[in-house]
């Protein structure tokens, strides 16, 4: 009787060992797949980092361009304003001479 029990235990252990081997193989393949996924993810993150750095550089360049354009517009506004006052002064002097000419010469 002991022999028959021993014969029953041995196949169970073999089945347990085989199922354990299959489970370990499944875990190993899952870990390999996860490794591939994380490698791919790391590559994507590196590419996105380069893209973000490029965007940051473009933003800084755009900001510098906007500030330069703002300064140029302010210079033009000041130039136009000073030209207006010059034109107004010349016009006032011409009107003054016209009035003097009309009253004193005519």
From TrEMBL:
PROSITE patterns: T_SNARE. Residues 14-76 form the T-SNARE coiled-coil homology domain. The chain crosses the membrane at residues 85-105. GO terms for biological process: endoplasmic reticulum to Golgi vesicle-mediated transport; intracellular protein transport; vesicle docking; vesicle fusion. GO terms for cellular component: Golgi membrane; SNARE complex. InterPro entries: SNARE (IPR010989), Syntaxin (IPR045242), T_SNARE_dom (IPR000727). Keywords: Membrane, Protein transport, Transmembrane, Transmembrane helix, Transport. GO terms for molecular function: SNAP receptor activity; SNARE binding. SMART domains: t_SNARE. Pfam families: SNARE. Belongs to the syntaxin family. This is t-SNARE coiled-coil homology domain-containing protein. It comes from Prunus dulcis (Almond).
């Amino acid at each position: 009787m002991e022999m028959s029990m021993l014969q029953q235990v041995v196949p169970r252990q073999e089945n347990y060992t085989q199922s354990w081997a299959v489970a370990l193989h499944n875990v190993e393949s899952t870990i390999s797949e996860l490794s591939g996924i994380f490698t791919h993810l790391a590559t994507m993150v590196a590419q996105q980092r380069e893209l973000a750095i490029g965007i940051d550089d473009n933003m800084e360049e755009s900001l510098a361009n906007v500030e330069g354009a703002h300064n140029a517009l302010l210079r033009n506004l000041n130039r136009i304003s000073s030209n207006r006052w010059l034109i107004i002064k010349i016009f006032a002097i011409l009107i003054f001479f016209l009035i003097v000419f009309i009253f004193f010469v005519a």
